[in-house]
Design goal:
Length: 186
């Protein structure tokens, strides 16, 4: 009962005063909203975001400036500081609640492993392999190949010769060394 009575009193006496304060401050608040929206557009922001920032700044600043009017604060420095501060606050709140998801980075903070998984799948597809066939060839969560010598001994000469032989005609490592030495003049 008491809550209903209080709500009725607030609706009849306080709400019209707040509305009047809001309406009186609206012209001054619109300038801040237009400025915020315009800056957002000029810095490359999407038009829908610029409009949202402008409206949020206008409404927030009208409320703040209306309260300053009610408190009879006419100091232009205080009013401008309140207008700008409210614009910054409303922009921050709007970004964190409505637009933050648009700008989640693809890299960093969990994005790198997703990107690597996509690249591994593409690499496996191009090479006619499965992603499991690539396992161990790249360091975890990176696209850098492992340093074979530093990561456990690497390839032995016999493994290298077998791999080269599987690519084509028999590969003679000694003949290749002799050819390289001749080219270098050693």
């Amino acid at each position: 009962m008491a809550v209903a009575k209080l709500a009725g009193t607030v609706t009849k006496k306080v709400a019209p005063r707040l509305r009047d304060m809001f309406v009186q401050a609206l012209p001054e608040a619109v300038s801040g909203g237009v400025l915020t929206g315009g800056i957002h557009l000029l810095t490359g922001g999407p038009p829908d975001e610029a409009a949202a920032y402008a409206v949020a700044d206008t409404l927030g600043s009208a409320a703040t400036l209306g309260l300053l009017n009610k408190a009879n604060i006419k100091n232009s420095f205080a009013r401008n500081a309140a207008n700008i501060g409210t614009g910054l606050l409303t922009s921050n709140v709007l970004y964190n609640t409505a637009f933050k998801g648009r700008y989640e980075p693809l890299q960093g903070q969990g994005g790198q492993p997703v990107t690597n998984a996509q690249q591994q799948a593409q690499r496996a597809d191009v090479n006619g392999m499965t992603p499991d066939d690539l396992a161990g060839k790249y360091m975890v969560d990176t696209m850098f190949q492992q340093m074979q010598g530093a990561m456990g001994g690497g390839m032995q000469q016999g493994d290298l010769v077998r791999m080269m032989n599987s690519m084509g005609p028999t590969y003679d490592m000694n003949a290749a060394r002799a050819n390289m030495a001749a080219i270098m003049g050693v």
